[in-house]
């Protein structure tokens, strides 16, 4: 019997969309080894020269003009990509998508980014007969995700489902599944063994992350945290931002045995396990990974738009707090130095997580829908 094939399409605008696609793929294969999955960042795959340039331009805009992105996000908030825009995207960048699909012969397509979602939706209008599932990878429902050709929406929360229904999407086409995380984030590790692996001490530990593109060195609050370096261990994850890592390593503030400055790593799940507090930009994927670990979170510099909504959701749900001043740092660095209070708070978050979230729910839902 031919194995079922699932094609997962994403884009490289930030790392969360593609991480969600890989997490769903791994989850599906763990539930049913007879399923074949393929994850593709479609723009980069079809345009290996132009694609990375577009992503780089987007990254510069995020860094230099975040308010512009926020303005565009709000202006288009309730609007799906119109047919002219879909046609332009298809003709300019995605004209070979149909051939890719024809070659791979998927039984199901899952899109974790609005652009490939719009491209596949257009192909379905033109006759493509493959179910299209849309996995919204944030805690908001921007209009660019929506299309009448979508077979099923997989969403993070009831609130996102309600936003879609308010715009006319039938509730029967929406399933609340949560955002999938890699199974590694559902494993627990021995803390002392992790401390030995990463050459860390048995001290209260803070993990500071800047999303898929790393920390911005200029943030004064990140530097302020180094004042606690004699009593609190600090792990700065700068991602692929090698220039920032070099600057931090050359800065006397960060030259201390209790401070680690790491580049790109695939072991964030372990670093979250050995940490008592996560300080991060509120990307949908990072927040969900933190949720899966039950680690308290502080959010800084959300990109205007979806990251602001992500932040609002996790603060309202009690999983995090906005990092607005040095007073917030002082408050939380004091909490994690009080062992009973810190452990009790994390236990409370784990209990809340167990009530609200199951990391395999999205994979199970897709598997059931395929049957």
From TrEMBL:
Chief place where the protein resides: membrane
Residues in Glycosyl transferase family 28 C-terminal domain copies: 226-339
Entry keyword set: Glycosyltransferase, Transferase
Glycosyltransferase found in the keyword field: yes
SUPFAM superfamilies with a match to the protein in the record: UDP-Glycosyltransferase/glycogen phosphorylase
Cross-referenced Gene3D superfamilies: Glycogen Phosphorylase B
Matches recorded under Pfam families: Glyco_tran_28_C, MGDG_synth
GO cellular component assignments: membrane
Presence of keyword Transferase: yes
Diacylglycerol glucosyltransferase N-terminal domain: residues covered: 17-181
GO biological process entries: glycolipid biosynthetic process
Family: Belongs to the glycosyltransferase 28 family.
Protein name: UDP-N-acetylglucosamine--LPS N-acetylglucosamine transferase
Organism: Paenibacillus albus
């Amino acid at each position: 019997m031919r194995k079922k094939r699932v094609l997962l399409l994403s884009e490289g605008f930030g790392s969360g969309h593609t991480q969600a696609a890989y997490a769903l793929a791994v989850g599906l294969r763990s539930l049913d080894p007879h399923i074949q999955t393929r994850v593709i960042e479609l723009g980069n795959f079809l345009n290996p020269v132009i694609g990375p340039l577009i992503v780089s331009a987007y990254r510069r805009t995020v860094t230099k003009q975040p308010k512009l992105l926020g303005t565009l996000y709000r202006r288009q908030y309730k609007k799906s990509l119109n047919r002219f825009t879909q046609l332009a995207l298809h003709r300019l960048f995605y004209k070979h998508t149909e051939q890719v699909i024809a070659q791979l012969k998927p039984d199901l397509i899952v899109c974790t980014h609005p652009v490939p979602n719009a491209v596949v939706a257009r192909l379905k209008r033109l006759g493509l007969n493959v179910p299209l599932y849309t996995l919204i990878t944030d805690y908001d429902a921007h209009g660019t995700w929506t299309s009448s050709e979508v077979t099923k929406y997989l969403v993070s929360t009831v609130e996102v489902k309600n936003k879609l229904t308010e715009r006319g999407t039938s509730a029967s086409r929406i399933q609340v599944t949560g955002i999938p995380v890699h199974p590694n984030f559902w494993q627990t590790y021995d803390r002392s063994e992790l401390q030995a692996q990463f050459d860390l001490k048995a001290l209260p530990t803070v993990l500071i992350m800047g999303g898929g593109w790393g920390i911005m060195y200029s943030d004064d609050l990140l530097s302020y945290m180094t004042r606690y370096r004699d009593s609190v261990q600090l792990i700065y994850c700068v991602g692929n931002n090698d220039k920032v890592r070099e600057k931090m390593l050359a800065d006397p503030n960060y030259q201390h045995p209790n401070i680690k400055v790491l580049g790109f790593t695939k072991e964030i799940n372990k670093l979250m396990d050995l940490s008592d507090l996560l300080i991060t930009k509120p990307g949908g994927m990072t927040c969900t990974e933190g949720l899966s670990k039950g680690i308290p979170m502080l959010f800084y510099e959300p990109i205007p738009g979806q990251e602001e909504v992500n932040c609002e959701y996790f603060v309202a749900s009690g999983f995090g707090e906005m990092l607005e001043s040095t007073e917030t740092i002082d408050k939380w660095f004091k909490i994690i130095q009080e062992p009973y209070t810190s452990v009790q708070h994390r236990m409370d978050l784990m209990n809340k997580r167990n009530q609200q979230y199951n990391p395999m729910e999205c994979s199970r839902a897709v598997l059931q829908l395929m049957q």
